[in-house]
Amino acid sequence: MNIQDLTLFVRTAQTCNITASALQLEMSPAAASAALKRLEKQLGVQLFIRSTRKLRITAEGERYLLHCTEALAALEKGKASLNEMQGKIAGEIRLSASSDLGRNIVLPWLDEVMDAYPELSIQLNVGDNLADFYHDKVDMALRYGEPDDSSLVAFLIAKIDRVVCASPAYLAKYGEPMHPHELSQRNCLLYRFGERVYDTWPFADSTGKYNVKVAGNRLSNDADVVHRWVVAGKGITMKSRLDMAVDLRLGNVVELLSDFNSSPINLWLICPNRTQVTPAMLMLRDMLRSKCEAALS
Questions:
Q1: Where does residue 147 rank: exposed (0-12), middle (13-18), buried (19+ CB within 10 A)?
Q2: Is the pLDDT of residue 80 over 90?
């Protein structure tokens, strides 16, 4: 048995599609089909039931899948352990990042990392749902907000303030608000995470801390969509300064109410346990800290 055949078996069990699995592993469908038949012959059992329209895993295949998945994970951990001994930046990083941050900020940074370390491969999962390290098969997550599980290994990347902003076109049409309380009369672009709508924005000035309830005609569960709306001049929003850093620098949006502080938010790099703290992960942590500092300066 070879590792590629086992990897193909696991991928095919996940996708129920030989062609898709073959493409993921840069194989031809014919070679993938032959590899699965070779594995079945070596095991002496049928792993999949094939028809012209469907591929379904057998009971024997389901049982073998559990052991095969564990074996491949153990081999990957062994490889990572050797890299750690040598201080080598290599292997695979499986990273989850929130939609706006991942697409608009982190993506070009990862391209630089890949160019600098050709033996490194990266899987990037982008989305605003909290990462399930086991179900989503990720090694680490880049997320705003305090980790809610003390058993996780968390590295603080940056403390980032929030910024209220709007496009020059919006401000030319509707004018600039001079006090946070005026936001209750403006069209505010809102973000929803799960069942929670972020429609109460925090501020502070010489009189103390207070919240302003806002509303608007646009609401999304994707932070990147809210980002695009504000750049397009659809209203006012409050977002992480890091998420808006490029557009603020280019003048695509303008910071508002800068005399009124908003609560900062921490950005964390989180992994489920210390086995994920490899030289590659520590390099990524240091790169993120450096890039965030530069972007926010």
A1: middle
A2: no
